[in-house]
Amino acid sequence: LRMGDAANFFVLTNTGIFLASVVGHALGRLDFFSPSFMRDGFCVSWGETPLVQSHILCFYVDTVCAVALALLNRRYKDMPGREPVALAPAGILIHGLGHLATWFHRGAEVPQGNRWSRGFEWAEVAPQVLFIWTFFFLLLRSAPNTPSTHAALHAAVHAPILVILVPGVFGFTYVQTVLLWVSSCYDLLRVHKDRYYDLSAALINLPVGLVSWVEASQCDTFLKAVGGHVYYDAIIPVSMFVYYATVLATPPKAKAGKAA
Length: 260
Known about the structure:
Blueprint (H helix, E strand, L loop, with lengths): L2 H24 L8 H6 L13 H22 L7 H4 L1 H17 L10 H4 L3 H20 L6 H18 L5 H18 L6 H11 L1 H12 L11 H20 L11
């Protein structure tokens, strides 16, 4: 079993257990997640100070990191193993824009039910479905083994489900589950697996799902006091910076030339 396969299997398992834990809390069967996380769907800090509230902090961090990743992408365009980070800047930026949109609605109570049960007009939800389609498409397309056509189809399925059927408090959990399960499954199906596959699975795919446990269980303990959800967002580009640093610090060994 390759290191990358082990990491991706762990991602699938860990994400499934987290999803089951959120459902268990919602049903009243479990009680180890922070009440504010279950109420808001995120760990939201400093809600009374709009310009440093968690969602706008995520927008700041994601925007800066997207620019930094784009510059690295341009600087190291010939780097071996660039595929896992080649399309990342657009995905990181749309992630930040998603938090910006959430921040604009910061005063509203997070809906417990879904739009289907409350009733809706298609003209009302169409712009949001289009934005969420773009969100899913850019993030899934950035996964190195997900074809663009497949990313578009997955986005077309999950965007209306998220907007219409998923209650707002479970939006984060739904998005994490879709992105990590889809990207890890496509990664496992790769035919050619090398050291870059192993590194990207261990350094990029794996860490973010671990941070979700900290956010959900420690929000009211300490995380809300120091920024909340921004650490979850930050770990995604930071893991990519670590991937860049690791690949650049350990270049492939040159093949020995044939004797004259």
